[in-house]
Design a protein that fits this description.
Layout lengths: L3 E5 L4 H12 L3 E6 L13 E4 L7 H5 L4 E6 L5 H8 L5 E7 L43 H13 L6 E6 L1 E3 L9 H8 L4 E4 L9 E3 H13 L4 E5 L7 H11 L5 E4 L22 H7 L7 H15 L5 H4 L11 H12 L2
Parallel strand pairs: 1-2, 1-4, 2-3, 4-5, 5-6, 6-10, 7-9, 8-11
Bound molecules: NADP nicotinamide-adenine-dinucleotide phosphate (NAP).
NADP nicotinamide-adenine-dinucleotide phosphate binds next to helix 1 and strand 7.
């Protein structure tokens, strides 16, 4: 009989990458979501179960028939971990999507606390899973994730793999970091202005690689944390060049020494955030299925198509909260550099 997987939050970007990988090797997959998000390509062949995980009893009802593995794309806070552990007896194991931003630097700092570049955590390069994570404290995204992780990792009711991806991209991405460069290329900007000389390296995670890692974790239940970052993580300069190449555009790169407001990108940081992929290889036999620049073609295709018939802010509601296209400020910056 086919192994069964329930993917909670399965109709989003990560679901679109996880579902085909599980189905390709014969898993019987059910997707759970509230049904607000449309079912995109890649989800064919999976069953759908309406569920709102925040509604008491809803998840329990949705997995009443049991599943060999429950993949939780939306494990955000300790209450979510408690809810998952309450499914012991109904599900055989768990895979929960966390984030690499749970890591604390060797100076104890975490990304969420950053007020300026001097606060960037002092991370080892690369960061192994043994690096301490955010201590409990004010409830921020990474601290909540770290607390959620601890509950899953420090129990023996259910095997639970915690996966720590970095800056994810792929079809279905509503954060849409790559839109930063894609829009500039579509607008035929003559130059791009980049802070930190475009040398920042903030590890990327292609959704296809994440899908593969989740598949392996589903097939080898165990309690552990594993990083998930692409092979040879690109710099900001390399990300911009790859987008420009895909969209057949050329721009002049204006490289600023510091982290000024003009020139900041979604990956800009004063020091690297790069994760160690050795444990995924040793524990799960993980091998990446794609490279950043290869999977980027799918991301760019999706970003362009998603904005064809609606404003980009509607297509990428998460990105709309922080992506900036202040061309006037960039023009002024370039003019002032030229005048020197
Ligand atoms: N983006 C990144 O760079 C990044 C980096 C590290 C970690 N992560 C982690 O990745 C996860 C987000 O994954 P994603 O990008 O695939 O998300 P997504 O594209 O926004 O998809 C979210 C999915 O969850 C469903 N959903 C939302 N609220 C729900 C609820 N209350 N009950 C049931 N289903 C619900 C949505 O469908 P409906 O709306 O129809 O319910 C959809 O299927 C988060 O855990 C985040 O912390 C992201």
């Amino acid at each position: 009989m086919a192994r069964t997987a329930f993917v909670l939050g399965g109709t989003g970007m990560i679901g679109r990458a996880v579902v085909p990988r599980l189905r390709d090797v014969g898993w019987d997959v059910t997707l759970g979501s509230r049904g607000e998000r449309e079912h995109a390509p890649g989800l064919e062949g999976a069953r759908f179960a309406p569920v709102d995980r925040r509604e008491p009893g809803s998840l329990e009802r949705a997995v009443a028939d049991g599943a060999d593995v429950l993949v939780d794309v939306l494990a955000m806070r300790p209450a979510d971990a408690e809810q998952l552990l309450g499914l012991a007896g109904r599900v055989g194991s768990l895979v929960a999507i966390s984030t690499a931003s749970v890591y604390a630097g060797t100076d104890g700092r975490v990304l969420d606390d950053m007020q300026g570049p001097d606060d960037f955590p002092d991370y080892p390069v690369p960061i192994p899973e043994s690096q301490p994570t955010a201590p409990p404290g004010e409830s921020t995204y990474s601290r909540e994730k770290a607390a959620m992780e601890r509950l899953l990792l420090e129990q023996d009711a259910l095997p639970a793999t915690v996966v720590r991806p970095c800056a994810i991209h792929g079809p279905g991405d509503r954060q849409a970091r790559e839109w930063f460069f894609v829009k500039r290329a579509l607008d035929r900007r003559p130059y791009v202005v980049l802070a930190y000389r475009g040398a920042s390296r903030f590890h990327t995670t292609s959704s296809a690689n994440l899908g593969e890692l989740v598949r392996l974790a589903a097939e080898r239940p165990g309690t552990r944390a594993v990083n998930c970052g692409d092979p040879e993580p690109p710099t900001v300069l390399e990300i911009g060049r790859s987008v420009a190449r895909i969209l057949d555009h050329e721009w002049v790169e204006v490289l600023l020494a510091g982290g000024e407001e003009v020139g900041g990108t979604p990956w800009s940081a004063p020091a690297p955030l790069v994760v160690d992929m050795t444990a995924a290889d040793h524990e799960l036999g993980y091998r990446p299925v794609t490279r950043y620049d290869e999977w980027l073609e799918r991301t760019v295709e999706y970003l362009v198509a998603a904005t064809r018939d609606r404003p980009w802010q509607a297509a990428f509601p998460v990105g709309a909260r922080y992506l900036r296209f202040d061309y006037e400020a960039e023009d002024a910056c370039v003019r002032s550099l030229a005048a020197r």
